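Risk register update: the risk of archive-format incompatibility is retired. Evidence:
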Amino acid sequence: MWALTSLLLAGVARAAIPNAMLRGMPSLPKVSVPERSITSPNGTALPNITTVYHFDQLIDHDNPGLGTFKQRYWMNWEYYEPGGPIVFMTPGEVNAEDYVGYVTNDTINGLIAQQQNGAAVIMEHRFFGFSNPYDNLKSQSLALLTIQQAIDDLVYFATTADLPMPGGDAVKPGQAPWVLVGGSYPGALTSYTMVNKPGIFWAGYGSSANVQTITDYYDYFTPIREYMPQNCSSDVQAVIAYLDKMYAANDTAGIQTLQEAFALGALDHVGDFATALQYNLWDWQSLDPDVGPGSLFYQFCDALEVKDGVNAGPGGWGLDNAIKSWGNFWNTTYYNYTCQDQGVEACLGTFVPTDPYWTNVTVNNSGRSWFWLVCNQIGFYQVGPPEGQPAIVSRILQPSFVERQCVNMFPEAFTSPPEPPTAETNAMYAGWNVNVPRLFFANGLRDPWRGGTVSADGLNKLNTTSMPIYMSDGFHCSDLITDNGIVDPTIAVVQEAGLRYMKEWLAEWKPSSQ
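Archived output:
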């Protein structure tokens, strides 16, 4: 649905490292802004949905005396009628300008608003885009970037904001029902908020909500391995096993030869080479049901598996051809896509802490803000699996490899590689143990983040009418996008169920104040 090249961070000298960081982020698919006029139910012309509004958000909810900062938000009340709900979302770890389409009926947010005669609002997450308490992203500033502060932002907005629509000063919780919607990390935030601050949001919708924080998140690659073309998976596994075997034998000459087959011989550290091989797999996260064989991920698999017009069988073509074909794909296509005109070490190396990528503290740097949350609270390091499991990612990559980068990025905060307190995060916000009323979970079978959701393999979380759990054949947050339900009937089932439950739950709401 959206090209990964759009994830490159403007103004940062390095291209590939932030691109890699963002490729593995659990972020929402983008939605374009529809080219149509917006009118209210009575025909009144409404402001363009790209109109930016600002809310005076508390800098620190534990110390209100520090004052406020301007938090950006957008809204659409084309379907709103008095008594309707406020459908509220933060797009999470992104500049929210690119997600304004989530206030339209091109998404589940807008479908709920349309069905229930409600208004849709999205609010930019603190320390992302241009909603920053301070004018920099230094460690001292980012100390106020926590899950709890983000939860409190949502609650403070809902309970104090006067919205710019007619009657928008009288739609606070108690006066009108609020529905909290989120996908990916914001989906987890939806669950966390309803656990931590019950009674504010009447209902919730969490899509691909990775509620259980996990440090050693090798399961990111499990759905990819299971659902990618089997021949492609076989050949990738062959190359990775070959690399890991040489690494275990300390065969530096063999590793160097392998790197040179990919034109990556100039990389000084084998861990950076192993990371580069992940890039092709991260492209899976950009897939949607309407993405065809021309997508970058399938171009990669075709490069490995189509030889002289013939497709390999389930076992692939074997190691020698896989090295040659995968290396050639990097040489002819992927290196230029990833690194543009940069040198190998400058593009893919991660061991120089003075590099501008690590030291840049200007705002609107999603990779840096996200990495702060990763290092401090949520982990989700996408690494190789334990011995005995099939591997499409090298076991050279362990959490310690990423934790080292936390020191590079935030030397003022970490003097040694930190292990994120994921158990504490899960205990505080319930993780997989979430059990709150009127919270709808929607997940995708092919989603690499499914292992952190309530649909994780082996969890067998109880599906109830109070907290329904639905799963489609989709990818990451596929059910949030209206058109995906047209393409894939299993996604349509999830969307229809979500709308049905919202209708039932909102019919039960009663005002508690005027």
